[in-house]
Amino acid sequence: MPPGGATASASPRVRPGTGRTPAALLCDMDGTLVDTERDWLATLAELLAEHDADAGTAALAPFAGLPLDGAAALVARRTGLAAEAAQARLDAAFTARVRAGVTVQPGALALLDSARGMGVPVALVTASERPIADLVLATLGPHRFTCSVAHGETPRGKPHPDPYLAAARLLGVPATACLALEDTPTGAASARAAGCRVIAVPTVDGIEEAPGTLLLPSLREVDLRALPLAFGEDGG
């Protein structure tokens, strides 16, 4: 399987529980590392509008963070289009947008390189299908990731904890010692359910700041060395 799809490659690891840095950095993809969430919502809006369904901001909000099959099922309920047809249309249109090029979120590459320089392994944990994940990995640089988990590679997807638990298992560290980066309520719920600390840079409303969950305006604000202070801990 392409970079990191099934097994983790050899890479430096951080001992869990150092109190200074996370054991691993587990990164959502769409909307978090790359601005594909906007492309995804635009793809959905086009299909909904084509069938005279509401494609406004509020109507699109429930789609944020959903995998392809879940989004297709919701489109089918709203439009009367068969779920299989909706999935095929969404897949083709979104893939074309991603192939045309994606915009990397500000601060994303610097953060990934910072983690690598500190010996903190990085996993991509995405609700996108494997072909989309591999297209984005090629843009971000597969060398920046120790492994990746795409939709359909775990028994359940987000918002269940399975994708984050699988990534931590591939890296050989407990999920409770990991930091997750997310942008949607669905993704944040998945990471929290796995026991990760979460930094969210929201692209939609609905993520609440709480113990173990920190909201920031940009990935540029993430400092892996300052996490204990950021989360109200003493840093051990």
Automatic annotation (TrEMBL):
Organism's domain of life? Answer: Bacteria
> InterPro entries this protein is in?
HAD-like_sf, HAD-like_SPP, HAD-SF_hydro_IA, HAD_sf, PGP-like_dom2
- Provide the residue span(s) of the region labelled Disordered: 1-22
Segments crossing the lipid bilayer: none
Give any GO molecular function from the UniProt entry. Answer: sugar-phosphatase activity
Signal peptide boundaries: none
UniProt keyword terms in alphabetical order: Hydrolase
Q: What is this protein called?
A: Hydrolase
